[in-house]
UniProtKB/TrEMBL annotation:
Belongs to the TCP-1 chaperonin family. InterPro entries: Chaperone_TCP-1, Chaperonin_TCP-1_CS, Cpn60/GroEL/TCP-1, GroEL-like_apical_dom_sf, GROEL-like_equatorial_sf, TCP-1-like_intermed_sf, TCP-1_chaperonin, thermosome_alpha. This is Thermosome subunit. Pfam families: Cpn60_TCP1. It comes from the Archaea. Residues 1-27, 526-549 are annotated as: Disordered. NCBIfam families: thermosome_alpha, thermosome_arch, thermosome_beta. Keywords: ATP-binding, Chaperone, Nucleotide-binding. One of its GO terms (molecular function) is unfolded protein binding.
Length: 559
């Protein structure tokens, strides 16, 4: 679709012949449709009664999940506006770890509400202004409603961990897992920050989810390098060396000419002596166990076994860091620099069988600043989904400890926001008022979807919820199991304040960005570049004809 402007009698070509251009209302409609399609694809997974999705990639590998961000990442979406909505879920995952589906569903509903107002000739800029005002007000309202939680209130932390796992694959053992998650986060918490990277998760296929456990220490997915080494070392001094125990190579290419066998023997003896000295150094500093980042020479393995030292090679740098935090040791990069002060301590270092795999357990450490969660389940798909639920749970417990503020769940905050934003809309002048009201309506998609997914009547549930919030019950939310409207805070269904504020913030930003686009210009369709018809048969514009951008046609295929 070439764009031409006439200069005198000569047409000037601005865009190439292959370019696709969609302008004005068509561009807005196409982008809104794409955004809504993404939200619709995850909407049925929301809440405790949400359904799962099975995603099969081109290689045939299968993922069964309820986790919004996982679904959207696996779906292979190639429409640019749709990808803006996917980014909302990724931001939510990085910032707070949970609420990815809620954020995407709200973004989709904001676009849906905007479409109706655009049809009434309300300008997109006016809409964007109104949405931003509503989002700011929503955050203020949520801040006022937030419930303070002290970091040593273990019961509330456990409820938060449990809420984050509700409706996911870990549902059947969520109480047990919630306890483990809270223990894990509290163990690795430092005064100024909590890095959940220090909670490593090991998946074991076999057994039931109930058999999951927390190891206060580190599990390294390796075996000892020599069969003659001890299986277990108690009260072990642990050396951490990010290098190799091998013969030092010369830095320049050197050629050694050996003229008689004695010289060769001398050469080999010298290499052995080098390795012997390295092992003797470990013995001298008092190491009982050594974790090495690179390789260990066969001869060195033999010497280490003779000395009764348990050695592990090719340990990942992440494992070495976790071992250092757990044992109090220091990772050294030069073996000559290692001295007894660099050694860590563990009450027990042992090679154990877990789910048919041999792994090294480093336990009984004085203050476990690095811990390992062992997640078990009957099949690989179950364990993978439990891991996703636990990752979300770790994120929300961390966020709660950092912020110390929570909100009731079950659609209660959204119902309260909708009520208060409708009042706020009256004080907003001009056409923006309509956008604020639309924002309030959009937020009610959360309780409505919770009701739909639980097989309840969404209208009846919404009417009940509105009535209770009108009566001043801030914590009234929908119990998806019974269909009743109950006090969520009293029931212990709570989630961090930041889950809600971040979801509203990123959903609003994405919706506003999409609404402000009035022209989409795409380069020629790469997929038809091999054809000889110069793209003449390609549909121009519209939701199905975005050419090189994958269009909704491309997206429909991906979904």
């Amino acid at each position: 679709m070439a764009q031409r402007q006439r200069m005198g009698n000569q047409p000037m070509i601005v865009l190439s012949e292959e370019s696709q251009r969609t302008s004005g209302k068509d561009a807005q409609t196409m982008n809104i449709t794409a955004g809504k399609a993404v939200a619709e694809s995850v909407r049925t997974t929301l809440g405790p009664k949400g359904m799962d999705k099975m995603l099969v990639d081109s290689g045939g590998s299968v993922v069964v999940t309820n986790d919004g961000v996982t679904i959207l990442k696996e779906m292979d979406i190639d429409h640019p506006a749709a990808n803006m909505i996917v980014e909302v879920s990724e931001t939510q995952e990085e910032e707070v770890g949970d609420g990815t589906t809620s954020a995407v569903v709200v973004a989709g509903e904001l676009l849906d509400q905007a479409e109706e107002l655009l049809d009434q000739d309300i300008h997109a800029t006016t809409l964007a202004q109104g949405y931003r005002q509503a989002a700011e007000k929503a955050k203020e309202i949520l801040d006022e409603q937030a419930i303070e939680v002290s970091t040593d209130d273990r019961a509330t932390l456990t409820q938060i961990a449990s809420t984050a796992m509700t409706g996911k694959g870990a549902e059947s053992a969520k109480d047990r897992l919630a306890e483990l998650v809270v223990d894990a986060v509290l163990a690795v918490a430092d005064e100024d920050d909590i890095d959940t990277e220090n909670v490593s998760v090991e998946k074991v296929v076999g057994g039931s989810i109930d058999e999951s456990e927390l190891v206060e220490g580190v599990i390294v997915d390796k075996e000892r390098v020599d069969e003659n080494m001890p299986y277990m070392v108690e009260d072990a001094n642990v050396a951490l060396f990010d290098g190799d125990i091998e013969v030092k190579e010369t830095e320049i290419d050197a050629e050694v000419n050996v003229t008689d066998p004695e010289q060769l023997q001398q050469f080999l003896d010298q290499e052995e002596q080098q390795l012997r000295e390295m092992v003797d150094h470990l013995v001298d500093v008092g190491a009982d166990v050594v974790f090495v980042g690179d390789g260990i020479d066969d001869m060195a393995q033999h010497y280490l076994a003779q000395e009764g030292i348990l050695a592990v090679r090719r340990a990942k740098s992440g494992d070495l860091k976790r071992l250092a935090r757990a044992t109090g040791g220091r990772v050294v990069s030069n073996l000559d620099d290692l001295d007894s002060d660099d050694l860590g301590f563990a009450g027990s270092v042992a090679q154990k069988d877990i789910g048919g795999d041999e792994r090294i357990f480093v336990e009984d450490v004085e203050e476990a600043k690095s811990v390992t969660l062992i997640l078990r389940g009957g099949t690989e798909h179950v364990v993978d989904e439990v891991e996703r639920a636990v990752e979300d749970s770790l994120g929300v417990v961390r966020t709660t400890l950092l912020d110390g503020q929570v909100l009731p769940g079950g659609g209660a905050p959204e119902a309260e926001l909708a009520l208060q934003l409708r009042d706020f809309a009256d004080s907003v002048g001009g056409r923006e008022q309509l956008a604020v009201e639309a924002f309030a309506d959009a937020l009610e998609v959360i309780p409505r979807t919770l009701a739909e997914n639980a097989g309840l009547d969404p209208i009846d549930s919404l009417v009940d919820l509105r009535a209770r919030h009108d009566g001043g019950e801030l914590g009234a939310g929908l119990d998806a199991y019974t269909g009743d409207v109950i006090d969520m805070e009293a029931e212990g269904v709570v989630e961090p304040l930041r889950v809600k504020t971040q979801a509203i913030e990123s959903a609003t930003e994405a919706a506003v960005m999409i609404l402000r686009i009035d022209d989409v210009i795409a380069a020629g369709d790469l997929r038809s570049s091999g054809d000889d018809d110069d793209g003449e048969d390609m549909p121009a514009g519209g939701a199905g004809g975005m050419g090189g951008m994958g269009g909704m046609g491309g997206m429909g295929g991906a979904m």
